[in-house]
Amino acid sequence: MSTESNESSNKLGLIFASVLLRLWLGVRALQTGIEKFAGIKMSEEGAKIDGQVYDPDLTVEASSKAYSMANYHGVPEALKGKFEAEPLMMGWALNIYDKVLGPALILLGLTILLGIASRVSLLILGLVYISLTWGLILINQDGGIAWLGVHMALIAMALNWANYNPLRILKKW
Hints:
By secondary structure, the chain is of the alpha+beta class. It folds into 2 domains: 12-37 and 72-164; 40-68, no CATH class. It is built from 5 helices and 4 strands, in the order H-E-E-E-E-H-H-H-H. A hairpin with a 2-residue loop joins strand 2 (48-49) and strand 3. Keywords: Membrane, Transmembrane, Transmembrane helix. This is DoxX family protein. The chain crosses the membrane at residues 100-117, 122-139, 145-164.
């Protein structure tokens, strides 16, 4: 195998790695943003015996996952109280963050998936993850901090391989 052929196959690996990493980061951001709109929908159903409802008065409660604007929480309720109790967390910033985090993640996920200004989108996603890391440091959530560190490494790799990503719109950005 010639040297030229080796360079070509190495470049193909970088192209595939770049596309896969961009897709992973885009899907991760998009679905994380969508999950901010998830909630539990409770309903009552007729109790079934052997697949049939025998007594309409006999019901069971059923729950299912549902998405709606009413379910939206940018900052999970379980963490919001901890953030509010933290003296270094500015209340006005927490309120803004609570409103924009979900839509921002959805928008960044879409721009990364579609390759629209990939470098700028990845940079902004990295800044969002840094802000999330800061918040988790304040409330001593070491597991989440470690996961965000892994995400930051992936973003750095995606930025480093951005030249090998052939499917981009606004390639300079």
